[in-house]
């Protein structure tokens, strides 16, 4: 298919979920993708599965259609399994055989709820497929890929993309905070549990949306999440509250400031390997802190002051004790004022968890 044909195709991203697996996804060309005859939908076969669209509601209303969905091959990450190559990497289809369980009942209950979640800064889930152990989610396509691509992988695409400027990082951080705060404020509250740059997607306008929220059934969370972003109480006790998302968000803020991975085992020192530990040590004085800032950033007095506020905010978000962390609405207040200095009236100056950041903003 020619490149101009691909650009004119309405595109969705399929997220394939299997028993106890990491989320892997592939690009789904809904209208014009040419398939082999064996891949075409055949109605009325014994392998028919139900696909419930986003128009359905939590109480079971809405529309559903029946499709045939063939089993995805067992080989992982081989050339024959490459579906396509897009801007931020190679897209595969894959399957894991794992003894851990991702309950079908949980999936059937949770996904119809998630299809109803709509927000400017949340990736919209449109359809889902169930067929045996196969779980396929269909969500909107975000053409610029993940935040990880622009924070850590930009060197591999030199000349195609460039590192994010500080103003872009502020806006992205604010977008993500708003999206997570919305999840926490829903009547049926959703805790993301796996918040990290690879689960933050960017559009052509470089505005951010949070993806893959609410997919964990509480059994495989620690194994399925990158340890560098896990709150201590979650990593040890698997205790789920909104404060674990706040902690993960604080780690993301540190990554935006430093351009570093949350856990880098290539570094020699144990404290250097763990971003949170290293970042706290670098905050001790101005000289060490300046060395911690991503060298790709153009530092002027205004930018440096803004980075300082975000750094203190990140420190509060990653407090060891959950009760010491702010909630996401307070975090959003601070970030919104940084991203848009003319909009400081929304800050809650009475909050006690962010005293230093508030004083600086005043």
TrEMBL record:
- The name under which this protein is listed is Protein kinase domain-containing protein
Name a Pfam family for this protein.
Answer: Pkinase
Domain Protein kinase: residue ranges: 77-338
**Compartments, record wording:** Membrane
Assigned GO CC terms: membrane
Residue ranges spanning the membrane: these are: 12-29
Q: Write down the membrane topology.
A: Single-pass membrane protein
InterPro entries noted in UniProt: Auxin_Ser/Thr_Kinase, Kinase-like_dom_sf, Prot_kinase_dom, Ser/Thr_kinase_AS
Major localization class: membrane
Organism (species): Castilleja foliolosa
Q: Which domain of life is it from?
A: Eukaryota
User: What keywords tag this UniProt record?
Assistant: Glycoprotein, Leucine-rich repeat, Membrane, Receptor, Repeat, Signal, Transmembrane, Transmembrane helix
